[in-house]
Amino acid sequence: MSNRVIRRNWQFAVWLLLLAGLVSAARADEQVFADYNCAFTPPEGWQLKSDLPPLSGGKIVTAFRNADNTELIMLVVPNAREAGPLDDRFVTNFEAGVESSGAGKRIWGKFVQAAGVRAYESLRPVPANGKSLSSLGLTLLADGKTYELQALSAAGAADLEPDIQKSFASFRFLKPPVVPAVPASGATESDKIGYQIGQYTGIALVVVVLVVLVARFSSGRKS
What we know:
The chain has helices at 3-26, 88-100, 162-169, 189-217, and strands at residues 31-33, 38-40, 47-48, 58-65, 71-78, 108-114, 117-128, 131-142, 145-153, 172-173.
């Protein structure tokens, strides 16, 4: 084999390695939150958004936005103590709390399996400057906490966005979580907590939209 052929093959191999490195760098990395025993992977190309306002009643653990700032995913953990179990009664109180905060009434809601536990998924509009954004939420109760993955989209129905669907599906617990036990029948303190969780969730959605995203979202996909 001539030196020219060897050199050409070597250059091609280097080019392939560089290309593989670029593709790898473009992939979204899993975000691990050891303090909350969970992790998820934001969509490829989405950027960390660190300027969200602090909210009393819970914490926006992290948030990521797409390139044109028309879609956002955030992980929210309300401060409320364990509210389980995740059943119809919890959902009724949760939805009442969300609506009381000014967020929209759900379009649909259903129980799903996520990260190996029962979860509640819902789609709703969130009012913003005379318009409304589409919000997809995933609620999980585990380890004495409430986990909320919330996605906002000004580009269309959030539940139909492949990037959002893939990111939601990536949510996992680092180690098997403890899920809430089923309480005795009848009204319990957890009913009130479910309402509080819903109220905080709705407030988080409304505040994030109005304070941070409304100017960009209300203009659609305009750069």
